Amino acid sequence: MNPKKLTSLFLAGVLTLSLAACGGASSNNDSAASANDGAADAAQAESMSGKVTLGGSTSVEKVIGALSESFMQEYPDVDVTYDPTGSGAGITGAQEGTLDIGLSSRALKDDETGLTATTFALDGIAIVVNPENAVSDLSLEQIKGLADGTITNWSEVGGADAPVVLIGREAGSGTRDGFESIVGVKDACEYESELTSTGAVIAAVASNPNAFGYASLSAVDETVKPVTVEGVAASEATVQDGSYKIQRPFVFVTKEGAALSEAAQAFMDYATNAQVNELIQGAGAVPVA
Amino acid sequence: MERIAARTGLPRAQSKAQRAERTAHRTRQIARVIERVMNAVFVLCGLVSIAAVALITGYIIWAGLPAIREIGLTEFLFGRVWASTAAEPKFGILPFILTSVWGTLGAVVIGVPIGLLTAVFLARVAPKGLHRLVAPAVDLLSGIPSVVYGLIGMMVLSPTLMRLFSLKSGSCMLAAVLVLAIMILPTIISVSETALRAVPPEYEEASLALGATKMETVFKVTIPAARSGIAAGIVLGVGRAIGEAMAVMMVAGNVANMPGLFKSVRFLTTAVASEMSYAGGLQRQALFSIALVLYIFIMAINLVLNTMLKKEADA
After folding, report:
1. ipTM value for the complex
2. How large is the average pLDDT for residues A85-89?
3. Hey, is the C-beta of A163 within 8 angstroms of any chain B C-beta?
């Protein structure tokens, strides 16, 4: 094929793609801003400008990253920033108005009043063991014991007579934070290995018959065995209906009664729309419904 | 010009000579310009590496000092607990420092005898055919990416150690030491071999003439004569071992324990690498401080190496 032909083909492809992108954008907007007609909406997306300041939980980094990236593609003049400072700081930021939207990876406490919480995703963490391990169900209490070193032998929870080896993630990882805070073993885990990726944890658990570890639901594959927690298997459905225990919500925290800026409202509408479910799944979390 | 020459009626030959001279002059001029430009290019290239070193040194000091100031130097260097994300964070890097020191020492203890004897074999003992087989193998060893060492360590070495010593997990200091020992072999072998080959043949001939056997000659004459070169090889190996992150991270377990042969340990390098991706605030600054400590270690090793090489050059 000669270069000219290639170029024109390429251009045609680009045109088709950009047309498709336009179509996608306007239809996304349709549902995001409920009532307006598509054309007006697209125009609004083009013209809207401003800044959305997000901050808070470090665990939501991947999800927020995916959401804000695609949001900014659609609203090119809106700048979304995210400062990972921890759920507590996110909630305080929303309260004090230093953040447009605070991000939290836990539900609000009773004394955190005057705030509205909007769950935009769920985080399900699977407990995985080596396929050779006979244990297939654990209670939250047992998992806690296994993690903090009070249970050191698998025979204590119905397995073979073998030592327990906890394989986890490095300090600062959202999955580690999630596991430790849900199970109640914050900073108390007796790790045997701290690895820097979910894939490495799964590989290590797959290669050591004594091992148990935790991983995002979406990362579990057939080389390891996920255990049921209090009789419930980890799956997207059991996380969504709340029956699987090792999960936590990812929450937008906003100040009650205070109106959001146009851009912040658009971001929230965008992120809580069912159309971004795939993005949320891609980032390793579970969509709300 | 030609036209002027023709009009003024100058003889043709003269104008030809003039032209030739002018061309030569121009060529010389161009050559001089090229010379000068290339000179500048070379100077620039030289400056790039100096600038890089200066930039890295400056940055690592600038980025590493704040956390040390905030934590306190003794607390930082001699603290035994590292809990960077705890509610009350602790930043003591003594476990990392000791692990790096012991781990490197272990790698040297295993790697140096094997490396040195391989170098002797290659330089003095090996028949040509075997040399042609072993030398490229050593070269290849140095070309294998560290992540591959780590992967094999993780998939083969760790499970083997686990079975061999009936450990609960094979990710331990011993695994890291073994991987590092293999990784520093090529450096030690190639530098030592060069040093051994550089020993003047008269030394050995004298020794052999006095009735010493070939092995006596190698160990009592050749190796002592080549010792500063061999030492340089060892120091280079130490530098490589202490700076290795990827392979170690995959086999050492990375828990901030005090060093122990069968314990899961974290090295200085892996301490920086494993937490960097999600770190923030003081934790992040403390990681830069660890990098500063590591940098000082490496610089000290280089200083030792340079003094040694200088001595050798003077000798």
Report:
1. 0.73
2. 80
3. yes
Mutation for testing the B interface, residue in A105, A170, A189, A223 having most B CBs under 10 Å: A170
- Most B CBs within 10 Å, among A105, A175, A181, A194, to test the B interface: A194
Contact B288/B192 with Cβ under 8 angstroms?
no
The answer to whether B255 contacts chain A (CB < 8 Å) is: yes
Reply yes or no on whether the pLDDT at A38 is more than 60.
Answer: no
- Final residue belonging to a domain, choices B21, B42, B71: B71
Q: Could you say which DSSP state residue B86 is in? A: S
Query: pTM for the complete prediction?
Result: 0.76
User: What does the pLDDT look like over A127-174, one tens digit per residue?
Assistant: 999 999 999 999 999 999 999 999 999 999 988 999 999 999 888 787
Q: Minimal Cα–Cα distance from B174 to chain A, Å?
A: 14
Is residue A194 within 8 angstroms of chain B, CB to CB?
yes
CB contacts, 8 Å: A192 with chain B: 168-169, 171, 253, 255, 264
Domain end, chosen from B71, B86, B105, is at B71
Of B221, B243, B223, residue with least CA distance to B100: B243
Number of domains in chain B: 2
- CATH code for residues A3-122+249-282: 3.40.190.10
B207 and B191 in a single domain? The answer is yes
Do B280 and A85 count as a contact with CB atoms less than 8 A apart? yes
Q: Count contacts between A and B (CB, < 8 Å).
A: 82
Rounded Cα distance between B172 and A101, Å, is: 44
CA distance A208 to chain B (A): 7
Based on the fold, state whether residues B212 and B141 are members of the same structural domain.
Answer: yes
The answer to whether the Cβ–Cβ distance between B277 and A174 falls below 8 Å is no
Are B277 and A172 inside 8 Å of each other by CB? Answer: yes
What topology does CATH give the domain A123-240? Answer: D-Maltodextrin-Binding Protein; domain 2 (3.40.190)
